[in-house]
Design a protein that fits this description.
2 copies of one chain form a homodimer. The first copy, chain A, is an alpha/beta fold. Chain A has 17 helices and 25 strands. The N and C termini of chain A lie far apart (68 Å). The model of chain A has no long low-confidence stretch (mean pLDDT 93). Chains A, B: Residues 12-394 form the AMP-dependent synthetase/ligase domain.
Chain lengths: 543, 543
């Protein structure tokens, strides 16, 4: 049967079967905004009518710059299901990146939170395609912007039913841009088909097992790669939602979990590390309704994984993915075989991203494009394919040409290993691995071991040009107590050969980050080069 | 990304990620045949080479007439993944149906179990397209068949790797025929895409939650609508399998569950009713590894559902589907809302098939094609759509024209209701509902209530022509103890108005069934007409 896999169908399922499930938003006054899928649906229909009336054509895009709240949720469906596309923008991007991507995507309407008014006012004069600004609120604050209205006025008065078009499943439903750690952001355009399939997949017991009984708290921003696809998946399965608005501090997150009986929460690993500490300091804190936690971007420390598993009975499921993959490809799955291993080994394996989910495929290729052994040691570039992986960068033929193999796999730029259990581990970025005298040193493995030292809070390892060895590692370290370079070196020697040890230890409490909170190794490399040149340094120490 | 959803990818996932999981087959000598996905894969590759070598073109079909065993499993993948199609045939069909469908599907090779040699020998002279017979064994028994070989010889000596073609996801992977209760069997052709999606869906926690940890025992025949798609889904998720061969009696099923730690078993409701009794009579029986049970075709009695839920801790999940839907569309899901109801109400609701799974849609339409209220009472024809529902009958334009609406929904021919919880119930077949004086009487509801009487084993209600009321109900009853017509009438009056009561009660222990074990109402109607004509009967009682 020619049945197109569209987001419209996933939304209709929520409304028809779970119409009274709630979408709850944390408000700035401390209370909650609550409404149901049926309520949301009526407003999504109104939004679609408003876009028709505004004159937005099929295929046109709207920008959204917002925290996680119910109006943002409505924007996940109104434009896409009516044949347009949502461009989720990250307000933390540098202004020049924001203007570049909004112009490149030719966004015609920009929806934004009042909190980001300054940013919007700064970039507005440079924007070439945006004709209309819509504040995601009930009124418009004082502003110099032209053509501005508020969201409630924008959708007011329209019909609460809508005749959705029969879209081809390959139609674009949204676009996100990479955060641009290696150059200008690049656009990843998503199809209805891709997000339908990934959303369905999240319901699999061996993936995240999203069900209608779940109450999902996406702490991860909804602008960050489809909010890790959770808003789409939870809707498909009829889950309830708790949307934090701008309230993503630990106290607020704990309160939302407790007050709204949250079962699934999703956030970067640091939130969970901090939450474990927060609970120690706040005996009244209660996250007992949590059933499982989704995280990604990097590995949480094993001790934290273990604590959530054993003490809080809420396993942390780690995912691996990327903007180009909608984002999810791989996640922790304790297979039968792994469950039969000693407990310590199981926890060790849980720090790896794990196994590809159904519908996603991964492979490792060395520099010559040859397959790499699955022995947990040999490494190669991680290449992927899936219906929810892009097949080109939007309007960037050169970047596209560099990023796909001849046989159609996406080259992630990540270096990984696969072990005998089939578990993928990400050991580095192609750009970050350190080529020292013909051998490779993983910056990520070094970082993890430095951070494992009790006095270290953060560590970032970069490769620096070396006159003799081509490249050598240098580490930036942020500590919470006095610790000497010698102490850290001894710590590292427990695990690595001597030639892996960083040539320089630079102590600092100000490690630069990108707009999505990753350490900015590009900046660090450039800072180092500007300040010191190459290795070996002439002065004894770089500090 | 242009990533075709093919069974080849699901098979590769099992081999790459779960290559050492086992497929276990019960043998006739009482032992088990055991091998892994990796082993199976090598033989599937050999089979594909053998089909190449035989000269089978892409798109050609092979017939398979077999019980559930590992060679049958290999036939699920070898032909389909190499671009051919498997026609699963039901050996219980009448000979003339078998010859009709094998000729219509133009099957060129017929694989069959030695147990069905007689059938094959009988139909062989009539078959116009079959060129080669392959016995699913190590040798060929004495036979008059021409061009016959055994499976092991057929695949022997070929390479154990195969370069699978890049198939379009809409390529046919298999075909099944309806069992023909209402005329000649009709062919339902399945695409790789449809079975990929349904297989993925079975992993959803809210569907069946198939995982790699499961050990799946399909008692349901693998020729019966893709073995309810379990072989495909379990492979996708890397589950283990226990295949019963011809050993589907209670004693054998219980032994396989106990000996192989089966977690998921699938069979028609009568097996589970009988299993509950079997356990009472055999204190040493042990089905404690069972985690959940899949059933379909009709509702198990509520008392049995309850017993499995409470006593055996293995909920019976009831599905609704059909040959035309691969087959699965709807299953029991105790939603949050339902779990808050009184326990009795929950069990009552569990006797209904339940909610459509993600990717499947159902609607009810009355005789004028208008929507029907979702009040649990109003009924209409169940119409469905999904990527795994067919959009035509193979080579039957007239049947196709009758079976689809103008807007592309499949008309199931079932009459259903949907209640306030969204639960679908199937109350009758369009052909079986009894039109009495302008009102409808559900034959299924009457049957269920008659069977609910403790002295009744089976009951089938048919509509019979009536001189005044157009149609009136007549019931065929099989009892396990003396029970009078008056006693049954009183029993029915507890629940139904007087005009629903059957005009005739015919006591018999020989109710005719179709080849798939359904009661054959077509035969019953014809038997009644031949014997008695129309109602009211001239003689006082029909018996």
């Amino acid at each position: 049967m020619d049945y197109e896999l569209t987001l419209t169908k996933t939304l209709r399922r929520a409304v028809d079967q779970f119409g009274d499930k709630e979408i709850v938003t944390k408000l700035d006054d401390g209370g909650y905004h609550r409404y149901t899928y049926s309520d949301a649906y009526e407003r999504i229909c109104q939004l679609a009518h408003a876009l028709d009336d505004y004159g937005l054509d099929h295929g046109d895009r709207v920008s959204v710059m917002a925290t996680n709240h119910y109006r943002h949720y409505e924007l996940y469906y109104g434009p896409s299901c009516s044949g347009r596309s949502i461009h989720m923008t990250n307000h933390r991007l540098p202004d020049e990146h924001l203007t570049t991507i909004i112009d490149e995507a030719e966004d015609r309407v920009l929806f934004f939170d009042e909190a980001f008014l300054d940013t919007v006012e700064r970039i507005a004069p440079e924007l070439e395609t945006v004709e209309q600004y819509v504040v995601l609120d009930e009124s418009v604050p004082e502003t110099d912007l032209d053509s501005v209205t508020d969201y409630e006025s924008f959708i007011a008065g329209y019909e609460t039913e809508y005749e959705w078009p029969d879209l081809d499943e390959d139609t674009e439903c949204g676009i996100c841009y990479t955060s641009g750690t290696t150059g200008l952001p690049k656009g990843a355009s998503y199809s209805h088909r891709g997000l339908f399939l990934l959303s369905m997949n999240y319901g699999a017991k061996d993936t995240f097992g999203i069900t209608e009984k779940d109450v999902i708290l996406p702490v991860v921003p909804m602008f960050h790669v489809n909010g890790w696809c959770l808003p789409y998946s939870g809707t498909f399965y009829g889950s309830s939602f708790v949307l934090p608005g701008k309230h993503t501090d630990l106290e607020a997150v704990e309160a939302m979990i407790r007050e709204q009986n949250v079962t699934v929460a999703a956030a970067v690993p640091t939130i969970w590390t901090d939450m474990a500490n927060y609970i120690d300091e706040h005996p009244e804190a209660d996250i007992s309704t949590l059933d499982r936690i989704l995280t990604g971007g990097s590995s949480p420390p094993p001790a934290v994984m273990r604590r959530f598993y054993e003490e809080f009975d809420a396993p942390i499921i780690q995912g691996y993915g990327m903007t180009e993959a909608s984002p999810h490809l791989v996640n922790t799955l304790l297979t039968e075989k792994v469950r039969n291993l000693p407990e310590e080994k199981q926890y060790e394996l849980q720090t790896k991203p794990g196994l590809p989910v159904p519908g996603a495929e991964i492979r490792l290729r060395n520099e010559k494009g040859e397959p790499v052994e699955h022995d947990g040691e040999s490494n190669g570039e991680i290449q992927v394919r899936s219906p929810w992986v892009i097949d080109e960068y939007f309007a960037r033929p050169e970047a596209t040409a560099e990023s796909f193999t001849d046989d159609g796999w996406f080259k992630t730029g990540d270096i990984g290993t696969i072990d005998e259990y089939g578990y993928l581990d990400v050991v580095d970025r192609v750009d970050d691995i350190i080529k020292s005298g013909g051998e490779w040193i993983s910056s990520v493995e070094l970082e993890n071991e430095v951070v494992a030292h009790e006095k270290v809070v953060e560590a970032v390892v970069i490769g620096v040009e070396h006159d003799r060895w081509q490249e050598r590692p240098v580490v930036y370290v942020n500590t919470n107590d006095d610790v000497s370079e010698g102490e850290l070196k001894n710590h590292l020697l427990d695990r690595f050969p001597k030639w892996w040890l960083p040539d320089e230890f630079i102590f600092t409490d100000d490690i630069p980050q990108t707009s999505t909170g990753k350490y900015d190794k590009k900046i660090l490399r450039s800072l180092f080069r500007d300040r010191y040149g190459s290795l070996p340094l002439e002065n004894e120490t770089a500090q």
